[in-house]
Amino acid sequence: TPASLRATLWVAAVATLAVQLWREPSGHWPAVLLIGELVVVGLLARMSSSPAFVIATPVLAGVVLVRVLRVDDDLARQAAGTLVNLPLMVRTAACVAIGLAGGALARSTAVPGAAAVGRVLSGAAGLALLFVLSVNWTRYQEMGMAAARTAGRNQLVGELRWRTQVGLSLLWTLYAAAALAWGFLRSNPAVRYAALALFGLTVFKVFAVDLGAVRTAYRILSFLVLGVVLLLVSLAYQKRRR
Prior knowledge:
single chain, mainly alpha, 9 helices
């Protein structure tokens, strides 16, 4: 039918452009251009009634993730000496673009399953962003530990190892708090439940890892921040219930 042919050509156009953007430029440009294509395809998924974009959007999102997390991983390792670097910004932009595309697809009326696909994409973007931030922090600390080992400063190695674990706990706590706030603002129970699950994982890590492997001062900081945030979460839920 004309509609199915039009949808097939749309998917072919998206795939062809993605292949060209993957192959032709160098450095970070393939990832940046693929992110731009994903944003455009997400907008088309929101405005168009064609079912092509329900297929093209998640496929292109997967291509973007493979590019930034797998193919460009060497670029991220080389830039791990600084905490804020270009690969981190590109990866963060990729996660944001996937989230935006998922949100646009969730509001599409092209096919009945478009909203479910969009919600899955948005959830995958949140998980990918948490992974990107955690890996960036861990690698940054590993670079410092490698330099300390080379200099024979074993005490500094242990200090950096403690900082790595506490930093991860603080990162997960703040990320879960931000996700919970977003879930409240958007009235999205799924995001709130995911944030609470991350809080539970953080509590488990604090007791299972930080309690036995982290210096006392850092352990106190980890427990203090986590306790304060959990208290605020409890107050927020009580206020919402009232």
